Prior knowledge:
Strand content: 25-35%
CATH architecture: 4-Layer Sandwich
Amino acid sequence: MSACAEELQAVSDTLFHWSVFDPSCKCEVGSIAVKVASGLVIVDPVPLADEAWAELTAAAPLRAVLLTNGNHVRNADALRKKHQVPIVTGFTAHKAVAPLVPDVTLLDNELIYGASAIAIPGASPGETAFLFAEGVLALGDAVINLDSEKGLELLPDKYCDDARENRRSLEKLLALEFHTLTFAHGLPVTHQAREKLRALLKD
Length: 203
């Protein structure tokens, strides 16, 4: 993608977020970076301006790039080549990101680079959530948070592989331990994240 985010938001000491409006999908697209023990792990990388990138990597070196589904390859390959870091997907996203070939493919609940993968069938192709030990649960397209008045919303049915299955898949996330939710489309939720996800799934 050609759109480039200019600003970086420090959500916490270990979580960073940036986003930009993408004309191709007519909505805001975002990325996060989580500072884990070995360095920074970026999820669904949107290009970031040089000054903001320098600010981000001053905190820790880049260690890996994680992709939540086949729609979010973005500039992952450019980061891999420039920084010599692996691209990581869940098992179901391995083929969905083609023609890109990931370096590491995680089975469900397998932990690497500080994150475990959880398949979310029913949303976008290969949809995968990543749970970090830092209490961050990173979602791709399964849930969006683009309107502050509406709050959390499920991915619209027309974009889902199977909308009912997406909802069922998300329900299993309520058993996990997390305090923050992040999204490929919308701002992170840092307050009552599990409760807000539960309320969404009860509607």
